[in-house]
């Protein structure tokens, strides 16, 4: 059975060339519900043989109907898919909540974001223009953008729908055909999206989805000689492996590898306005966000005031089952819970001070992967909890005295993804925006990646390349120069 219900559980095959297929080797993986530890669904354990089939289907689509469509026609299809996603918002919301562990409100917002990505890129598909370039007399020189061909998309488990939208939406708008390898921990909404897109009119083979382990299906996709571009979002270590594999085929890669993003609060800041951003940007999705604000840097004059105000909000945080729709759900797995708890054990061992913690509600299912959100104060800048991406609901807060010290602290980690700056001083706002090493800087706000329209990506070990916004379209295309001599 490639797709359907088996023994009361959903079962999904790989989606290749418009049909559901069991993995070539016939093996499956079991997804767990992080809210209670129960079995959630069966997915195919794809391997290199399945990736081969998916790449072949995508390449055939480029020679067929999909490859012959105009940019306007591609845009119209993306609009139809966007509308279809919204019609299935209830199903996608529940699946995302159960699969990832997100509270229902957050899961529903992700469905809306997916639809918006498709709407945005649908409207952008026929707006990518080349140029005529001044050159010697007797020549006309043009530049045009062409699709790479077959693009590979390796999607993480923390925001399956949002990251699919920003990556796949732009790739399809530019006329690429895609092979998607979602995370084995959480992939149900991506599989349902493949069905939705096909039913909405996306030509056969333009989108193919192969599930499985990263070391098997993911590695096969990264190293495949017929893949022309790879988009990867995930950990630094895996990103290094993806880039190394792609380099053997001289294939371009867009990498978004996480961060240790600071929010910097100066004494003149509007602290009441800042407070929800200071807390929510750290605990949203149980802290499992690449652009989470995991470091809070506060000028010493208001340091205790900010700690007290954040602590009050932390004490009100409730953690429970995703479908209870509380402040936080579980983290994605017991494995991830263990990683986070090891960091908290290290904090205790090294004498770091807990400023405040949230509460796991008494009726939270016993086998759920729950972690208390934790705010740690006075953390030394070089401590592991101030340097490493924890990927859980843990924030560290530390003081600074001068603007120069704030810049040094902000730039003191290997990452450079997002930064927030809170100050009413206009000159300082611009100085900080230029001085901080980050792909995005938010002044008196913090968007955790920002809206669909804002280019997103990092510097240093947060990766390279940009997705989201119009800029993403250029990354999913190759620039060709055409020189015509006519005398």
From TrEMBL:
Its EC number is 1.2.1.3. GO terms for molecular function: aldehyde dehydrogenase (NAD+) activity. InterPro entries: Ald_DH/histidinol_DH (IPR016161), Ald_DH_C (IPR016163), Ald_DH_CS_GLU (IPR029510), Ald_DH_N (IPR016162), Aldehyde_DH_dom (IPR015590). Pfam families: Aldedh. Residues 20-482 form the Aldehyde dehydrogenase domain. The active site is at 256. Keywords: NADP, Oxidation, Oxidoreductase. Gene3D superfamilies: Aldehyde Dehydrogenase, Chain A, domain 1 (3.40.605.10), Aldehyde Dehydrogenase, Chain A, domain 2 (3.40.309.10). It is an enzyme of class 1 (oxidoreductase). Belongs to the aldehyde dehydrogenase family. PANTHER family: ALDEHYDE DEHYDROGENASE-RELATED. This is Aldehyde dehydrogenase (NAD+).
């Amino acid at each position: 059975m490639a797709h359907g219900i088996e023994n009361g559980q959903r079962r999904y095959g790989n989606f290749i060339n418009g049909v559901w297929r069991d993995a070539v080797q016939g093996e499956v993986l079991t997804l767990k519900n992080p809210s209670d530890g129960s079995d959630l669904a069966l997915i195919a354990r794809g391997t290199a043989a399945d990736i081969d089939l998916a790449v072949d289907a995508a390449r055939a689509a480029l020679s067929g109907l999909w490859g012959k469509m105009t940019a306007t026609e591609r845009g119209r299809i993306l609009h139809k898919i966007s509308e279809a996603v919204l019609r299935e918002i209830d199903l996608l919301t529940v699946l995302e909540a159960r699969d990832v562990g997100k509270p229902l409100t957050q899961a529903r917002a992700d469905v809306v974001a997916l639809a918006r990505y498709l709407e945005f890129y649908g409207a952008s598909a026929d707006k990518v223009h080349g140029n005529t370039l001044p050159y010697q007399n007797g020549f006309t020189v043009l530049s045009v953008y062409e699709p790479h061909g077959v693009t590979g998309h390796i999607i993480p488990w923390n925001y399956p729908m949002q990251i699919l939208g920003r990556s796949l939406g732009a790739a399809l708008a530019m006329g690429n055909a895609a092979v998607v390898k979602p995370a084995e921990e959480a992939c149900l909404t991506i599989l349902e999206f493949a069905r939705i897109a096909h039913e909405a009119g996306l030509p056969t083979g333009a989108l193919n989805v192969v599930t499985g382990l990263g070391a098997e299906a993911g590695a096969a996709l990264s190293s495949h000689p017929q893949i022309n571009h790879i988009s990867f979002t995930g950990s630094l270590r895996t990103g290094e492996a993806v880039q190394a594999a792609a380099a053997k085929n001289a294939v371009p890669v867009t990498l978004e590898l996480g961060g240790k993003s600071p929010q910097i609060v100066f004494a003149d800041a509007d602290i009441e306005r800042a407070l929800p951003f200071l807390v929510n940007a750290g605990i949203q999705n149980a802290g499992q966000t690449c652009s989470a604000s995991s470091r809070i840097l506060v000028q010493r004059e208001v340091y205790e005031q900010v700690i007290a105000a954040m602590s009050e909000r932390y004490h009100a945080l409730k953690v429970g089952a995703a479908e209870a729709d509380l402040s936080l759900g579980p983290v994605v797995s017991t494995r991830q819970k263990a990683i986070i708890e090891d960091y908290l054990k290290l904090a205790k061992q090294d004498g770091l001070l807990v400023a405040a913690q949230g509460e796991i509600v008494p009726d939270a299912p016993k086998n759920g992967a729950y972690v208390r959100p934790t705010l740690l104060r006075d953390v030394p800048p070089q401590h592991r909890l101030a340097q490493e991406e924890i990927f859980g609901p843990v924030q560290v807060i530390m003081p600074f005295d001068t603007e120069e010290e704030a810049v040094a602290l902000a730039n003191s980690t290997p990452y450079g993804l997002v930064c927030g700056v809170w100050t009413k001083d206009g000159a300082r706002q611009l100085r900080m925006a230029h001085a901080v090493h980050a792909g995005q800087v938010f002044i008196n706000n913090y968007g955790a990646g920002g809206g669909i329209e804002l280019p997103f990506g990092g510097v240093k070990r947060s990766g390279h390349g940009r997705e989201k916004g119009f800029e993403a379209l250029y990354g999913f295309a190759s620039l060709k120069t055409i020189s015509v001599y006519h005398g």
